[in-house]
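BUG: 3D viewer hangs when loading the predicted structure for this chain

Environment: internal workstation, default settings.
Expected: structure renders.
Actual: progress bar stalls at 90%.

Input used:
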Amino acid sequence: MSKSKPYRVCPNCGCNLDPGERCDCKERAELDAAKEAAQLAADLTHIDRREPVLMPGA
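Structure tokens produced before the viewer hung:
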């Protein structure tokens, strides 16, 4: 039987990492934030842009 190194735990997200493996939780968080910002910008372009109705005599 060969002795293997135990896994490590990421201090940021808590995922289990193999020896030498690097966690990408920070990059995933940045990517998710960028996607969310892009979605918000896309949603803002679809806001109702109708002109207000002016009442006669106002």
